[in-house]
Design a protein that fits this description.
By secondary structure, the protein is α+β, with helices and mostly antiparallel strands. Helices cover 27% and strands 32% of the residues. It has one domain: 3-Layer(aba) Sandwich (Aminopeptidase), CATH 3.40.630.30. Strands 1-2-3-4-5-6-8-7 form an 8-stranded mixed beta sheet, with helices on both faces.
């Protein structure tokens, strides 16, 4: 479990399926990130049992309630197309619509960057967003990610589409520089 000023990041459990479905069924949440809206609580439970079992996958929860409102993950080498070595990983995230615009994703993702560089020995963290997903782009900018390249024909298999994908990264040196700057 990881904690921030307002958040608790913890592992997903089967008991979270109903809450996950509540937010993941919204067509404005998943499709911009490349996955279809959930159709049932059972589908959400299956996602928890499979997709959300990564070593560094966490439910984003408000400290007071402990109820999940989104997910944040460091996808380690071998579980992402962007990381090219064991000292690289990819950051992914989403949050339910009622929590948009509150700064929760940058706060949660910032905690994972601290873990990536401070505890896991990463040298580079990658992140990407599809064309038009300005919310995701803004999170990456807030966290200090810098543009690296664009993939003009990126497959989106869960939606049977091809999209334009913008890839960014941040390095340990850049993260340390940002962290040492007074906020």
């Amino acid at each position: 479990m990881l904690e921030t000023h307002r958040l608790m990041l913890r592992k997903w459990t089967p008991a979270d399926a109903e809450r996950l479905f509540e937010y993941a069924k919204d067509p404005e949440v998943g499709p911009p990130a490349g996955w279809p809206p959930h159709r049932s609580i059972e589908e959400s439970r299956s996602v928890i049992d499979t997709v959300f079992q990564g070593a560094e996958c966490y439910a984003i929860c408000e400290k007071g309630s402990g109820l999940p409102m989104g997910a944040v993950e460091l996808m380690l080498y071998g579980h992402t197309d962007l990381a090219q070595s064991p000292r690289e990983c990819e950051l992914g995230y989403w949050i339910g619509k009622p929590f948009w615009g509150k700064g929760y994703v940058p706060e949660a993702a910032g905690a994972l960057l601290k873990r990536a560089f401070g505890e896991l020995g990463m040298e580079t963290v990658w992140c990407a967003h599809y064309d038009g997903n300005q919310k995701s782009k803004r999170v990456q900018e807030k966290l200090g990610f810098q543009y690296h390249h664009t993939i003009s024909d990126s497959p989106v298999p869960l939606l049977n589409e091809v999209r334009v994908c913008h890839v960014r990264c941040t390095t340990r040196a850049r993260w340390e520089e940002i962290e040492s700057t007074p906020h």
